[in-house]
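Dear colleagues,

As part of the handover before I leave the project, I'm documenting each prediction I ran so the next person doesn't have to rerun anything. This entry is a single chain, and its sequence is reproduced below.
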Amino acid sequence: MPTKILFVDDEESFPSLIRRHFRKQIRAGEMDCVFAANGLDALQTIQSNPDVDIVFTDINMPQMDGLTLLEKVHAFKPQMKMVVVSAYNDMKNIRTAMNRGAFDFLTKPIDFQDLEITIQRAIKEVAELKESENRFQAAQTQMIQSEKMSALGELIAGVAHEINNPVGFITANLETTEEYLTGLAEVVQLYQQHFPDVDGKIADKIKEVDVDYIIDDIPELVSSMKEGTQRIVNLSTSLRTFSRSDVSHKVEFNIHDGIDSTVTILKHRLKANLQRPEIKIVKQYGELPPVVCFPGQLNQVFMNLIANSIDALDEYNEGLDFEAAEAHPNIIAIATEVNGDGETVSIKIKDTGKGIPQEAINKIFEHLFTTKPPGKGTGLGLYISRQIVEERHGGKLSCNSTPGEGTEFIIEIPIKSPVD
């Protein structure tokens, strides 16, 4: 992206002079010059061009002078690099400008060699400042997200623990209940064998409650209750696996357990609804060794990527009737393998959504960038995911997408991560 420089001067020939001198840089896309005739005009230009990096302003101008402009700009953009330009005999104003935070000053008539040197210095400082701000912003975002994940992990672990206690009671009592019901059914059957002819109230009650049906249904009834409790146990296990927050050091972790726990937590979003059929998860797991990592953080990456795939399929099906949606496969394929180097593993998550526009591919990992409609995306998920994979694990997170055919995210991380 070219450096955008605002030149503020009331001389009519000044813009032509600047454009002529810097024509090569402008044509090469290295510099973008905008102009204003006075301080008031300059303020409006800065507000409508928030990407202006540097301002060169004359001091003596009508409507609003350069010193007032300097003061007003620094009030709302204190990091703006502003260079004042004035005559040799105007040193008092130049000193005032420097005291008010001007980056540098030039004297008229302008020496273009000095101007170029000053521009390069300002560009360098702007770049360093932006890099510093980006690092601070990234660190702050990661810290906030880590605190959120830690708090979420503690909450989920607590909920899982509270679930385990009553489920444990139910599971233990189901075994006893099955034993009791089986015994009672056997007693009833013995009575029916030895006293087949009953009448009166007993016969009416046997018919009313349908004893034979109950006896036949007991095994299936108990089996369905066992299945239900096992599903709760599995969910609780998935919650505990997902919420692992080993923030102090890396541990060996089964990547497949992390993916499976994430899919279990997102299972409710995979079900069919009025807009689309069920989303199918297709797993193609390779033989992976335990990976040394931060499990809770990697699970967060899996959550972000799989949830994004679900969003992409939901968006793809918007506006389609159910038959048209059913004709298009709603699939999220998850594949894992050890890479050819034997030192890294790959996790590939691919959906059959509408894909990402080519112009957005290079921006999707940027801070606050999102392709989702307003209110549906924060622009943090992929940004944080890349930080976790690349900065915390020394790996790589990349994306391949073809509009109309879907999107694939590829996570590559070392089996024994070199990054502590």
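The first helix runs from residue 14 to 21. DSSP finds 14 helices and twelve strands in the chain.

All the best with the project,
I.
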